[in-house]
Amino acid sequence: MADVVPERKTDIGPPKYDSMWPPVIKENFGKWKYHEILEPGVLVHVAENGTKLFTVRCGGTRLMTTLHVENICKLADQFCDGYFRFTTRNNIEFLVSDEKKLEPLKKALAAAGNLPIGGTGAGVTNIVHTQGWVHCHTPAIDASGIVKAVMDELFDYWQSHKLPAQVRISLACCLNMCGAVHCSDISILGVYRKPPVIEHSHLDKMCEVPTTIAACPTAAIKPAKVGDYKSVAVNADRCMF
């Protein structure tokens, strides 16, 4: 009989959804009876057999340093048997199966100073945003600075349940709207108001000129030589902005 070929391991696509579940979730899959919010940022799920799983939600960012992620992992190792997860809005959720570790975890998060608890229920949840100038080549505005400024003003609503319902805010840096602004309660959208200004002395050092020309959907950009620089010119009448 031929040997059974083991399943090929690959890094293409996400892992199977249940491969990284904590044991308490595996054991009670499909058997959760109810859940409730105990306080802003703290939830409890109760299974049919009485098992409880506590979730502590903290604010995260889209762009994190490896040191910050390492500190999050250390907290998860200390209080959550190594288990935590990210939500689609960049929240960090620590999964606590031992109720005795709940209060010590909350105190450790408060001491950390950069992992505020909140974002549940009738308040403001985390702002999701696009990549901005860090990685994308089409943004009209940057993302991180604006998101930080907005959340600084709304932070009290992150840690409270003062609003009639949960409010979701999103930011997209351009009209592509890959930041899900079309399905949020409040949208912040960056738009171009004028044709772009060209810095001829820097363009060929920062951009691939053929790619830049090809990226324009209205063919408003064409190659040009300005002085000693190989650059581009923009036809303002054809420019969509």
Automatic annotation (TrEMBL):
Residue stretches making up the Nitrite/sulphite reductase 4Fe-4S domain: 121-198
Domain Nitrite/Sulfite reductase ferredoxin-like residues, every copy: 46-112
Cofactors that this protein relies on: siroheme; [4Fe-4S] cluster
Gene Ontology CC, one term: sulfite reductase complex (NADPH)
Keyword vocabulary terms for this entry: 4Fe-4S, Iron, Iron-sulfur, Metal-binding, Oxidoreductase
Molecular function terms, GO-annotated: 4 iron, 4 sulfur cluster binding; heme binding; metal ion binding; sulfite reductase (ferredoxin) activity; sulfite reductase activity
Biological processes, Gene Ontology terms: sulfate assimilation
Recorded superkingdom: Bacteria
InterPro entries: NiRdtase/SiRdtase_haem-b_fer, Nit/Sulf_reduc_fer-like_dom_sf, NO2/SO3_Rdtase_4Fe4S_dom, NO2/SO3_Rdtase_4Fe4S_prot, NO2/SO3_Rdtase_4Fe4S_sf
SUPFAM superfamilies attached to this UniProt entry: Nitrite and sulphite reductase 4Fe-4S domain-like, Nitrite/Sulfite reductase N-terminal domain-like
Protein name per its UniProtKB record: Dissimilatory sulfite reductase subunit B
Biological source species: uncultured sulfate-reducing bacterium
Gene behind this protein: dsrB
